[in-house]
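Summary for the steering committee. One of the milestones for this cycle was to obtain a three-dimensional model of the protein with magnesium ion bound, which we needed before selecting residues for the alanine scan. The sequence and ligand used are listed below.
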Amino acid sequence: RRAKFAKLKSEPPVTRDGHRVTVMVNAGLRDDVAALDVTGADGIGLFRTEFQFLVSATLPQRERQQRLYRDVLDAAGDRPVTFRTVDVGGDKTLPYLDHDADDEEENPAMGWRALRLGLERDALMKAQARALIEAAAGRTLNVMFPMVSEPWEFDEARAIFEQQREWIHSRGRKLPTEIRYGAMLEVPALAETLDMLLPKLQFLSIGTNDLTQFLFAADRAHPKLAMRYDWLSPSILRFLRRVADQARAADVPVAVCGEMGGRPLDAMALIGIGIERLSITPAAVGPVKAMIRSLDRGKVMEAVADMLAAPQRSLREPLKRWAIENGV
Ligand code: PEP
Ligand code: MG
């Protein structure tokens, strides 16, 4: 099987009815970029910049951040890379970031993390913005913000980047040819104001790991809950379909970058609700590509629409049967 997937490396992820799906990988370390050549993926859809912060004993200085980002862009060549600004805080605490005694959190996943921390500790965010902008001189910079809960948070984060861009420009230094800004949708509340946010976005990326834990109020790491709610439940798929429809209507590309997209059956369901871009763990690229190349997109969209109109507890079993009957 491994050999079969390796052979798929140079085959594009095109469905039987001729639809090209974009399949990218998630990464976080310099060496992860090698996965692009190994898998033949279309780019890095999620580069988790906090990895460098988490493996470091001290706060990574701007120059060190910048070196990593430039190395990643160099290694990726003309394949796009989307950098996510640091998602630390909560359970991913940094020992060198001063925490007060009352910072102890009972619910770290819903706590002071990601953009919430970044906007308050804006020195951290400014340094990262400058590192990313300088690293991407002469190229496109794709940057996205984690845990955006309301549109104004995106506005503030973008403003920090724009200020840094102007500052770098005023020093006569070379800028990226373009900065493309995106938001992660992983806090359900954002779906309610998405119409206000979409016109400002160049892209949207759905983080289904956090999104589903918040939708179901079920800790994503709790072993007793892992089997209880299914990614292929009607509530999740209907939610995602609504977001995908809204983004498409606004002409904003939308990807799924959570682990869900790395499971072939779940990825098939995502294609069935209109998702055309996936960013997944590198080991999943082969199996997901194989699924895509045996899939009729028009047919799976019809099947999923029917199943969601007469919902069952989970679409997993009916979708499995459908896949077998349809040679996927
Ligand atoms: C997610 O929440 O789905 C996601 C991709 O981000 P992370 O897993 O890093 O929280
Ligand atoms: Mg997340």
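Key point for the committee: The radius of gyration is 20 Å.
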